[in-house]
Every structure is written in structure tokens, then in C-alpha cells.
Specification:
Layout: E1 15-18, E2 22-25, H1 26-31, H2 34-37, E3 42-45, E4 54-57, E5 82-89, E6 92-99
Antiparallel strand pairs: 1-6, 2-4, 3-4, 5-6
Length: 106
């Protein structure tokens, strides 16, 4: 697969980019079998059911965000570099990726 590597030191609390993709319901995502074949899905909003849970699906439009490993990754022994913030921008829900600690070049 692909990885994104820092080409310079990045300070903590730096905005990296917006997570871009088509916004669809979890139900639609399951119907399209996207959950099985796409490891880059991002939950935009958790809802009470699969029709109201929104997913960002980076297939038809995307950017480097889908290649950043360890977003909100809290697996044993691993410290995440990147966190997420959900915001409304011009009335549209977005996910912003930002550093949660300093990241060294490389």
C-alpha cells in the first residue's frame, strides 16, 4: 500500500488536511459492499442506526488523507500521530486531520 511520510518536522496541533470523499449512509456503504473492499472509510457521524450513520467513502474523490496511517489508532503499543475533529464548514460536515503530537521528519 501507500504511506504518507512527513517531509519536515510538524508541530503538535497542526492541521494536516480535510478527509475528502463521498458522504453516504452506513446502510448504503454496506449495500455497495464498500465496507469489505475499502480500508479507508471514515465515520463522519455516528447515528442511532445504519441509515443515520454517515460515512466518508474516498473512492470517486479523494486526497492524501486516505493514505495516512494510524488516524485515531489506539492499538496496544502504538501512539497515534493524527487525530480528527468534526466541524461544520459552510453548513457541510467535515473531518479535519490534525497532529496530536510533534511528528519528526521521515
Amino acid at each position: 500500500g501507500y504511506d504518507v511520510v512527513a517531509d519536515r518536522d510538524i508541530k503538535e496541533k497542526t492541521i494536516i488536511c480535510e478527509y475528502i470523499g463521498e458522504v453516504i449512509s452506513l446502510r448504503k456503504c454496506i449495500e455497495l459492499e464498500t465496507v469489505v473492499k475499502n480500508d479507508s472509510l471514515m465515520e463522519l457521524r455516528a447515528g442511532p442506526n445504519s441509515d443515520e450513520t454517515l460515512i466518508i467513502r474516498p473512492e470517486t474523490m479523494t486526497n492524501m488523507a486516505r493514505f495516512i496511517n494510524g488516524i485515531n489508532n489506539h492499538k496496544a503499543g502504538k501512539k497515534p500521530n493524527i487525530g480528527t475533529v468534526r466541524k461544520l464548514a459552510k453548513g457541510m460536515p467535515t473531518v479535519i486531520l490534525h497532529t496530536i503530537r510533534q511528528i519528526a521528519k521521515g
